[in-house]
Specification:
The protein is mainly alpha-helical and 440 residues long. The protein folds into 2 domains: 1-58, no CATH class; 76-438, Amino acid/polyamine transporter I. 61% of the residues lie in helices and 2% in strands. The protein is built from 18 helices and 3 strands. It has helices spanning 3-7, 38-46, 48-55, 62-69, 83-94, 99-111, 115-139, 145-153, 156-189, 193-196, 213-228, 230-258, 281-292, 299-303, 312-341, 352-358, 366-399, 417-426, and strands at 198-200, 210-212, 437-438. A 3-stranded antiparallel sheet has the order 1-2-3. Helix 6 (99-111) runs antiparallel to helix 13 (281-292), helix 7 (115-139) packs across helix 13 and helix 9 crosses helix 11. 50% of the residues are buried.
Length: 440
Amino acid sequence: MDKGAALASSDGVHHDRPGAIAGSAVGTGTGSSSFASWRAYGRALAQTPRRVARRALAATAPGEEMSRVRARSGADMARALRWWDLVGLGLGGMVGAGVFVTTGRAARLYAGPGVVASYAIAGLCALLSAFCYTEFAVDMPVAGGAFSYLRVTFGELAAFLTGANLIMEYVFSNAAVARSFTAYLGTAVGVDAPREWRIAVRGLPEGFNQVDLVAVAVILLVSVCICYSTKESSAVNLALTAVHVAFILFVIGMGFRHGDARNLTRPADPARSPGGFFPHGAAGVFNGAAMVYLSYIGYDAVSTMAEEVQRPARDIPAGVSGSVVVVTVLYCLMAASMSMLLPYDAIDPEAPFSGAFKGRERCAWVSNVVGAGASLGILTSLMVAMLGQARYLCVIGRSGVMPAWLARVNPRTATPVNASAFLGTDSVIPNNKSDVFTDP
């Protein structure tokens, strides 16, 4: 959608207070909405320069976001989540398949065995960022996360640009994550997933004509789940996350059992690779921290659930910050076990854990366990991301820069069904040219 058109939410409606956002009738479904008809939309486009000048820096008050703006969704979202639900959502969102790859790359290319310190530094940075999200979410417990926070501080333009980027990021990353689920699941069950589980579709551009049926099915299944109930979605996430964490603890235990502490300081080829726990010094550790920080992405999605938390002041800090702390401990233990399995210069950067176990007698089967665990991690991260993206779009609809029907909350399920269904479908249609439609 054109950015100028998107910023238009009403047909020239003025408000006395600069903090009041034009288009207060958007959520009511009346004819004053810019999206009421093509004629109304055309008038809104013609008024774009004036509207942008008036609304770009206009900010709402936190109280407005929690009352008048939230009322545009109609029914309220159910406040059914507790702190343990948020911890589970944080773990599910962060601990995906990425850690099984980034750990090896960071150790091999930058930090060596010091990747343990890299994860600790990255975890501290993520925790400080989580404190910021927690502060905002407790002060203003509404769905929308970063979009809502920017809207009350820097105004609509900054919020819209951020929200648009977040939605685009979620749609493309969810498609890619669903495709990677197929690959890891194929590895776990011994199937060539690209050959067996994809079909060619005529009429699509070359390079985007392979439809991953499993990925499409997973996205649609998760979409149905999050439309049905947030509490039930959290229960499913908790169950999957518990099993996934059990897989991770098993891999950690196997690494410590079959590893050698001498690998923490001794490279495989001393003539070419420096030794020591920090072979590349502090610079290598911090470069490794910058790389592995990607493994912490996901805790921000938990803040979008603030509107559905029973006791925001107590549950949100424990849930968001607690999940980051738990994940940091798990990541450091994983990095330590991998570093003990192999010297850092012998680690396969593309498949560090699987490669380490395949090279050992009587341990090759553990690589299949890694694939199964990664598949579960992908499912939980996909579910948390799709929960978060639906709430972003719901609040963007409340603000009037997207059609108001996206902001509607279903009174029976108490979830943003329209936004969830729209983004779920949008993640699999070929027009996105996302990784669900991939090269053979």
